[in-house]
Structure formats: structure tokens, C-alpha cells
Design brief:
Blueprint: H1 3-19, E1 23-30, E2 40-50, E3 60-72, E4 89-101, E5 105-116, H2 122-133, E6 148-160, E7 164-165, E8 170-182, E9 185-197, E10 224-243, H3 244-251, E11 259-274, E12 276-289, E13 296-308
Antiparallel strand pairs: 1-2, 1-13, 2-3, 3-4, 4-5, 5-6, 6-8, 7-8, 8-9, 9-10, 10-11, 11-12, 12-13
């Protein structure tokens, strides 16, 4: 069996297993959703599963998520390293999370394990997606970063107001802080998010990570028989102490600047019916480097489906 087919088989098995559980979400994001570019952070796939807590006396539960993220430079024709752009790299990880929560706050404790390098087979994954679509084939994957085991821990806390009736809709406000320590990413994030709509579920809508998904949006996901909607707007700032993709590239002679800080905003449109949520998000980030002359802005779009079994 080819490596890619084997990975696809594993994902199908995971999806089948998750679909017999409680709450599941599948998220994909890509810069091509909002621009013609397909470089740097080129795209990601995130599969999240959360065990719903049916014990009203003990508000605790756990979740597992799978992430696959691709990084490529803007110039897809070069077969040599492009030393003034991000290197080719694939990153995969599993995240194991434990929650203590209520309707108005949560504590999230996480442990993640993953890898960077050819072991992720992201070259084959990108080609399998691009060829049927007639998209460009990136030719520099032979220069990607070497295999490296990735480990990390995290803590995330959020607090949310009760919904406030403002006449035509309801409104709430969420604030959160997150700390990550690991050899792929070490940093601290703070965000604030505002949400309004005709029926605000008790879910937590937080803004950030810099790269990746927020599994906490699966908490308190309940059925709602009628059609409902909400819009959320969020802002975040992220202090970065370590980011492996950039740091390892600099070690290998790339003329990049070390990441210092990222600020960003996100707007999401969410539709609900029965046990399913459909979300379209657009995120815009501003990347602050050591060299102020190379500070850049990056945007991508996200599509997600969440449902409860």
C-alpha cells in the first residue's frame, strides 16, 4: 500500500471512530481561499473530537485532535532552497486535552506529540490535492526540513459573559489566555472575542492560535432544532519565544528574521441547524520580526463543519 493511501486509510478509520463519539469537527484552512497566493503557511487540516459530558455534577471532559499543516515558499518552481523565504516543511501532531468547565469559563490542559519532516509525507499530500485541481506543483520539497520529533504542553483559560439581549439579537463577550511550551512552538497569547446572533449557544468562541485550531469550541455544543446564526469578531496578540520552522531555517543558513510577536483579527460567520454547525472564517495576522523592514501581513480563510452525535 502506498504511503499516502495508508495515511488516508488511517484518517478514514479515525473519522469512523470519531463519528461514533459525541462531538466532531473537521476544519480546513488555506490562503488560497482569500487570495491567489499559495505560499508560506499554505494550508492546514484539523480533526477534533470531544467526549461530551453527560454528568451534570462533574463538569470535566477530554478531547483529541489531529493537525496537518503545510509550509511552502512563494516560488514553487525553484528546486533549490530559497534562503530569503520560509523553507518547505510538513507538520503533523496529535493533541490530547483535558477540560474543567462550566457555561461561563473553562480550563484546558494539553499535551501534544508530532513530527516535522518527510515522515509526514506532506509532499505527496499536496501533490494529490493539487493535480486534480490543476493547481501548481511545488518542485522544492526535496529541500524540506529534516525529520524531528515534536513535543509540547499547553494551558488555556477563557471566561465568557452571559448572553445580553440587545433587541434584534443577543450578545456575549469572551476573553482568553493561552500558554504553550514545546520544541515546535513556545509562546503566550491573549485574545478577546465578541459574538452576536439570534441564539447564542454556550460554546466558547476564542480567537488565535497563531497557526491551528481552537478545540474548545466543541465545549457545550448542544442541539438546537430551529435555524440559528451568529457572527463573531475577535482580536489577539501572541508573544513568540520559539517557532521551530523559522528557528531551524535560520540554523540552516536561511536569511530570515526570528519571530517576535504576532497580532491578528478574525471574523466568523456561523450557521446552525439541528445538530450541525457550518462556519466560514477569515483571519488576518500581522507578523512582527526582529527586522522591522520584513514585517508582513498574512490572510487565510477557514471552513469548518461541527456536528454532535
Amino acid at each position: 500500500m502506498k504511503i499516502f493511501n495508508l495515511k488516508l486509510f488511517i484518517l478514514i478509520v479515525l473519522l469512523y471512530t470519531y463519528s461514533n463519539a459525541n462531538v466532531l469537527s473537521i476544519i480546513t484552512d488555506n490562503d488560497a481561499f482569500v487570495s491567489k497566493a499559495d505560499g508560506r503557511y499554505t494550508g492546514g487540516l484539523f480533526i477534533n473530537w470531544l467526549k461530551e459530558n453527560n454528568n451534570s455534577k462533574a463538569n470535566s471532559t477530554y478531547a483529541i485532535s489531529f493537525s496537518n499543516i503545510l509550509y511552502t515558499p512563494d516560488d514553487y518552481n525553484s528546486t533549490e532552497p530559497i534562503l530569503d523565504d520560509i523553507p518547505y516543511a510538513g507538520y503533523m501532531k496529535f493533541n490530547f486535552l483535558y477540560y474543567k468547565y462550566s457555561n461561563n469559563y473553562f480550563h484546558e490542559f494539553g499535551f501534544n506529540i508530532g513530527a516535522v519532516g518527510p515522515i509526514t509525507h506532506d509532499k505527496e499530500i499536496q501533490e494529490a490535492i493539487h493535480r486534480p485541481l490543476g493547481a501548481p506543483i511545488f518542485k522544492g520539497w526535496d529541500t524540506q526540513l529534516d525529520n524531528q520529533l515534536m513535543l509540547g504542553i499547553s494551558y488555556n483559560y477563557a471566561t465568557k459573559t452571559k448572553p445580553i439581549d440587545i433587541g434584534i439579537s443577543k450578545f456575549d463577550w469572551t476573553n482568553n489566555i493561552r500558554v504553550n511550551i514545546g520544541n515546535f512552538y513556545t509562546g503566550a497569547l491573549a485574545s478577546t472575542s465578541f459574538r452576536f446572533g439570534n441564539h447564542l449557544k454556550n460554546m466558547f468562541i476564542t480567537t488565535g492560535n497563531f497557526i491551528g485550531d481552537n478545540e474548545s469550541h466543541l465545549l457545550n455544543f448542544k442541539q438546537h432544532q430551529d435555524f440559528s446564526w451568529f457572527i463573531s469578531v475577535g482580536f489577539f496578540t501572541n508573544k513568540i519565544y520559539k517557532y521551530y520552522i523559522i528557528d531551524e531555517a535560520i540554523k540552516n543558513g536561511y536569511t530570515l528574521s526570528k519571530l517576535n510577536r504576532v497580532t491578528g483579527n478574525q471574523i466568523s460567520y456561523n450557521l446552525f441547524y439541528n445538530n450541525t454547525q457550518y462556519t466560514l472564517s477569515i483571519e488576518s495576522i500581522y507578523i512582527h520580526n526582529d527586522n522591522v523592514l520584513t514585517n508582513t501581513q498574512k490572510r487565510w480563510g477557514t471552513i469548518s463543519i461541527t456536528w454532535r452525535y
